[in-house]
Design brief:
The chain contains 7 helices and 7 strands. By secondary structure, the chain is α+β, with helices and mostly antiparallel strands. The strands form 2 sheets. The protein has a 4-stranded antiparallel sheet. A 3-stranded mixed sheet has the order 1-3-4, sandwiched between helices. A hairpin with a 3-residue loop joins strand 5 and strand 6. The chain is globular and about 55 Å long.
Length: 227
């Protein structure tokens, strides 16, 4: 019988992986019930809810600030990967949202972005898209640690995206831009953009938000290395 306990101070990576291995095969709902966690039905379908719950389950410590990793005591960022029963990712993994003029801040190995993705705790969540998160199953878990070559490769891909955005007209930009590992999504209000163009504002790009993802094929590559 698996022993549940959300009030655990995780001393190291092995502690965390042991906790997750103990609940491998259990549904999210079973974990929720076992610790009497209060679930708001209008919240569980929000993106990120499963990851937030698992963070609470693994470690009751609160994040110090928004720039800290999820498990700041050992510098781990939690990312869940929704997969089907064959461990094939069902969607891209969101990494960060930002405005255009924050993009250049990524181009450093000491940036918040690279700090957050340098050590990631990946948790596979098994279940098709159309079922309640409470019925989805905890799958395998593993930790990825980026080396210098990984950083160089990802940094180059970010430069490619930055140049496309920086040297393109707004009208010519597609809603999603792709590299080997990343998908960059453009998010903006059509009415606001039309208004800005009408009054000939030059800072339209300032009003656009971007959301950066790891592509499914990249997370599939990580999964295949482990499983």
């Amino acid at each position: 019988m698996c022993k549940f306990n959300c009030k655990i101070y995780c001393l190291n990576e092995n502690d965390i992986l042991n906790i997750l291995n103990n609940v491998n095969g259990y549904s999210i709902g079973k974990l929720v019930d076992s610790i009497n966690y209060v679930v708001k039905k209008n919240v569980i379908y929000n993106k990120g809810w499963v990851g937030n719950f698992l963070e609470y389950y693994i470690n009751s410590l609160k994040k110090r600030n928004k720039n800290d990793c999820d498990l700041y005591n050992i510098g781990l960022e939690i990312k869940t990967i929704p997969v089907n029963i064959k461990n094939v990712p069902l969607q891209d993994t969101c990494l960060i949202s930002f405005k255009f003029f924050s993009f250049f801040k990524f181009f450093s190995f000491k940036s918040v972005f690279f700090y957050k993705i340098s050590r990631i705790l990946w948790i596979l969540i098994i279940g098709e898209k159309n079922i309640s998160p409470l019925y989805k199953i905890i799958g395998k878990s593993f930790i990825s640690i980026l080396c210098k070559l990984d950083f160089d490769f990802l940094l180059n891909e970010l430069y490619i995206l930055y140049e496309i955005i920086n040297f393109s007209n707004l009208d010519s930009l597609l809603p999603n831009l792709y590299t080997n590992c990343f998908r960059l999504q453009l998010i903006f209000n059509e009415n606001k953009i039309c208004y800005l163009k009408k009054i000939k504002k030059c800072s339209i790009k300032e009003k656009i938000y971007f959301r950066l993802y790891f592509r499914k094929k990249f997370t599939k590559y990580l999964i295949d290395k482990i499983i």
